[in-house]
Amino acid sequence: MSFNIALSGVSAAQKDLDVTANNIANVNTVGFKESRAEFGDVYAASLLAGGKTKVGDGVLTQEVAQQFSQGSLQFTNTALDLAITGNGFFATVPEITSRDFSFTRAGQFKLDSDNFVVNSNGDNLLGFPVNSDGTSASVALSTTVPVRVPDSSGSPQQTSEVDIRMNLPAGDQGKDPAAFDPDDPLTYNAATSVTVYDSLGDSHIMTYYFVKDNSATVDNEWYVATAIDDQLVDMVNSDGTDSDPTTATHSMGTNTGNGVSAAKLQFSQGGDFIGIESPDGVSTTDFKITTEALGQNILANGSDPAQQISVDFNLEPNGATPNEPTQFASAFEVTSLEQDGLPVGRLTGIDIGPDGLVRATFSNGTSEPIVRVALVRFSNEQGLTQESSTQWKESILSGEALAGEATTGTFGEINSSALEQANVNLTTELIDMIIAQRNFQANSRALEVNNQLNQTILNIR
Description:
alpha+beta; cilium; flagellum; FlgE_D2
C-alpha cells in the first residue's frame, strides 16, 4: 500500500510541476489566465476497519483551476488592440454566419480582407448593432453581428448657411453700385470668398462683394452681392420670392451688364451693425440674406438645383455683440467665415470608446457609430471549458452566457490600443516549481525506501 501512496505523491508532484511549467510557458501569452493545481487526500475505510488506526491512501488531483484575476495592461499603437479591465469576455465566432460562440480575453484583433475584425485564428469579433445616435439597438447575444469597419465614404452635406463676421472700413469712399463690375476691383470696396458644397459634395467658391453706398443722403450703409464660381447670384426678397435686378430697390452692376440684386447692411454712427434690408428694401426679420435657387446653370454636375444659401450676419437687435460685423476706422478684416456644408469624406480612423462603441471618423470632419463591441460574463468563470488560443466555451458549470455593454452593471471597461497581459507572476511560479520539485524528490525517496524494505524481506532466509 505504501508503494501506491508514494506513487500518488509522485503523480501529484508531477501534476503540480506540469501546471507551473504551463504557467511559465505562457507568461507572454496575451489574455492567458494562470492555473492552479488543487489536491485532496484519499481516504478509504470499510465498516469493520479500525478507524483509529487507518492510514490515508495518498493524494488525488481534484482540479486544475484557472484563476481569472486581472492581468496588467500593455499599451500599443493599434486601435484594434483591445483590453478589458474588470469583468467580461469578448465573444467570437469562426464564421460570419456561425453561432458557435467562443469567449476570450485576448484582444489582438485586426482586419481581414473583407474589413471584418478578426483575431489571429480568423475568428470574428461580435458586437451589438447601434442606432444613428450611438445607442445599442439590442444587447442580446443572439442579435450580435460581426464587427466590420466600413469601406464607404462619409456622406456629403450641401451648404445651407454661411456665418460671417468682419469689419468694413469706415473711412472708405463710397462707390456707385450701378457701376459694379466683379472683374474690376476699383468698382467695389472689399470682397471675400468661402468654399461651399453642393448636394454631391462638389466644392464651389462663393464670393461676397461689398460696396459702400455713395449717396449723399445715406451714411454708413453697404451693398452686398454674391457670386458662385464667378457667376452672380440674385438674392430673394423679404417674402422669399425671386428678385429682379432691374426693378429691385437694392441692386448692383446695372450700368455694366453685371446686374445683380443685392442686400443692404446698415451701421450706426458708432459702427455697430443695426439692420439688413432685402433687395425689395424691406428689413429682414431673421437678420439673414438668402440667395435664389442656384439652378442648373451654376450646379451643372447633377446636384440639387434648388439649393439656396443663406448668409447669417449674427445681428443681435437688443445690442452690439462681438459676433456681429462692425464698421470701424480700420482695414477690411474677416474674423470668421464658416459654412455648414461637407465634402465627401475618406475614412481616416477608428475610435473605440470605453463603452465599446466603434466610431468611424472621416476626412470631412464627420464621424459615424458603427457597432458596439459586446461583452459577455458568466456566473462561474471557473466552470468554463478551456480551449486552445486562450479561448473558452460555455458549459453547464459556467452557467449561461450573459451579454451586455461595457461600463454598465458588473461589466468592465474596454481599453483601445491596449492588451491584457497574462496574469502569471513569474517569481511566484519559480517558487512553486522549487516546492513541487522538493515534493517530487521526497515522494521518490519514499518509493526508494519501500523498495529497500521489500528487498530486505525477500532476502530473509
